[in-house]
Amino acid sequence: MKERLFIQKSKEHVKLEEFIRKQFNQAKVGSIDVQYTPVVTRIILYTTTPGLIIGSGGERIKETVELLKKTYGIENPQIDVQKIDNPDIDPNIVAQSIAASLENGVNFKKLGNYHLQRVMDAGAIGCEIVVSGKLSGQRGRRERFIAGYLKKCGETANRDVAKGFALANPRLGNIGVTVSIMLKHTELALNISEKATEQEAEVVAEQVAEEVKEEPKEKVEEEIKEVVEETTPKEEVGTSGNTEDEKS
After folding, report:
1. SS3 for 246?
2. CA distances to 25, 84, 175, 180, 202 from 99, in Å
3. Residue 167 belongs to what domain range?
């Protein structure tokens, strides 16, 4: 019985998320968080264009709240809109941008490389973009763009890797876009960076130690030669030798 309840709740959550994305399809909606409480069901929307979601005087939000009450039977839904500061590290926003460009006829290779570079420049430790469908002909295929370090399995992948999906509908047929991003502020990434800095410090220490062992001998010999040349000029030595020979 408990398993059925969990499955039913997860289905309701997926349907609710799909409904919200269709309701605000003109705006780029990132992740959606739903918080269930005994009094209020709070829906948090992360977007780059909060004005399109709110509407003039909050009309679109009011309409969506009424539809949620009628369709899903939610008694007191509240919609909270949050603006995304850095859209280049949100996988849903990146996937939607790629899907929109594919519908406009932009080459998928240029899109993949362009957005991959933007994600890495924005501060990600790893990124993977997968585009599958009828890309350049009647036959469907799958293209993958990857950069950096990205976990694929295990608890770290579930916790530290954010995933987003979008569907493009060009003339040839549907194209699915999946984006996975691993950010730098995760525990694994911090451990990787700490180990990298430790290894770099060890390498630098070894280089310094080798230089300290090798360089003093050469420097001392050069300094001794310079001092000898400065203190014993060749001309004075020659004249003093000639005067002694004349006296003798």
Report:
1. helix
2. 13, 19, 8, 15, 46
3. 88-185
Backbone angles phi, psi at 29, to 5 degrees: -100, 125
- Express each pLDDT in 72-119 by its tens digit: 777 888 888 888 888 888 999 999 999 999 999 889 999 999 999 999
The answer as to whether 246 is a domain residue is: no
Of the listed ranges 28-37, 78-87, 205-214, the one predicted with least confidence: 205-214
Residue 238 belongs to a domain: no
Which of 160, 132, 129, 131 lies closest to 147, judged by CA?
129
Encoded amino acid at 124, one letter: A
Q: Where are the beta strands (DSSP E) in the chain?
A: 29-36, 41-47, 77-83, 124-133, 141-148, 161-168, 175-183
Tell which of 52, 67, 84 closes a domain: 84
The pTM assigned to this predicted structure is 0.66
Burial grade of 236 (CB within 10 A; 0-12, 13-18, 19 or more): exposed
Strand partners, 178: 130, 165
In a domain, 151, yes or no: yes
175 and 94 inside one domain? yes
> Do 50 and 103 sit in the same domain of this protein?
no
Q: Do residue 165 and residue 204 come from a single domain?
A: no
With tokens 């009828």, the residue in question is 134
| Three-class secondary structure of residue 244 per DSSP | helix
String of DSSP letters for 54-123: H-GGGHHHHHHHHHHHHHH--SSEEEEEEE-S-GGG-HHHHHHHHHHHHHTT--HHHHHHHHHHHHHHTT
Type of residue found at 39? V
